[in-house]
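Summary for the steering committee. One of the milestones for this cycle was to obtain a three-dimensional model of the protein with S-adenosylmethionine bound, which we needed before selecting residues for the alanine scan. The sequence and ligand used are listed below.
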Amino acid sequence: MTVELAIDHIGSAGDGVAEKDGKSYYVPFTAPGDWLRASVLEERGNGSVAAIDEIFTPGPDRIDPTCRHFGTCGGCSLQHLTPAFTADWKRQRIIDCLSMAGIDGANVLETLTSPLGSRRRVEFIAAKRKKGVMVGFHLRRSHQIFDVGDCPVIDATLLALVKPLRALLPSLLKRNSEAKIMATVSENGPDLLITAKKELDLETREALAAFTEEQQLARIAWQQSAKEIPEAIAARLPAVVRLNDVPVTLPPGSFLQASKAGETSLAEFAKSALGDAKTITDLFAGVGSFTFPLAAGARVHAVEGDTELVAGLQAAANRAILPVTSETRDLYHRPLLTDELNAYDGLVFDPPRAGAKAQAEEIAKCDIPVVVAISCNPVTFARDVRTLIDGGYQLGDVLPVDQFLFSPHVEMAAVLKRD
Ligand SMILES: C[S@@+](CC[C@H](N)C(=O)[O-])C[C@H]1O[C@@H](n2cnc3c(N)ncnc32)[C@H](O)[C@@H]1O
């Protein structure tokens, strides 16, 4: 069945949305103002998903996508929109989520967008098939993999590894098996973590060590599954990133803000908001993206659930003789309690996508005058900010940061104060 539709807006998943005869249609790769004919594919909630057949009139924000894989690659869904439209759409996503949590009139700043080619952490998928090994990304809404040639989003040194990996992996992977390859830019070359079900024999280890040298990698680590602790197979040099000029060694596969520009924007925001604080706690601290910038002017207590990350952060702080203490703690099950929080005059928290419900409930009861909330999920961000407002905090500036270009993702930082 085909329908003629006028796209009204972009929904939260990045698809264009049109209303017709009381029904919603979700059409990927469309822009507001597009007038088009589409084929109806499947039901989604109370509406239907449809695919473009023909665009009669393009909307004013439609542009030609920059990448030849756009439309088939599962990584990008918004390349057909002007950067200005996308930046504003991401900002509006945050405003809408805040509004749904009953928070209206927030001062949401302009989105800071990372440059093209700045994504420094990426997961490639590799699959060994009859014809050889493919290395790339999933096709859109599919488990199938396609060989990536170009990518306007990721760092060139990571993209340059795709071809050599295609040559390396056939002898390493079992027939019809798949592997995930997490690649991260470090100061001493790319750091790779390969996740694949295979016991490594001596020959495989030697091949990985030779690859590390040939490609000037910092390290290759291997794990059989995501649940296992990765084993470093070959390390040429430490996988180091600089956080406020402090060298920090990354554990294999560890979280890092997706772009240096994004990390800097979030850290600058936190620093400026917490400028007067002398004792700060950084919750969900990771490698210390905010700990190190903040430790230039205050004592910082970093709290994080991952033991390896805490060890790396503390070792780096000790080497740099910085006033940093740290603690491994599961903040979902054992949040810092109000009495503990009251030892600080500044706080930053940056949880995973699920947010920090239990921790926000404790923060809402504490006396800390300035809190910075950082998040990668506008829905849980709005929920946690609501909790803080209900506890007497006032919401100040909110900064949208776009590190995941051409995807519906957005990150944000907000300052909350109490008198
Ligand atoms: C979004 S990352 C932020 C890391 C860091 N703030 C940064 O910007 O690099 C979230 C961090 O929360 C940590 N984490 C996840 N679950 C946790 C838990 N239950 N308790 C404490 N930390 C947790 C992860 O290991 C990760 O480092």
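Key point for the committee: The domain at 85-115+256-417 is CATH 3.40.50.150 (Rossmann fold).
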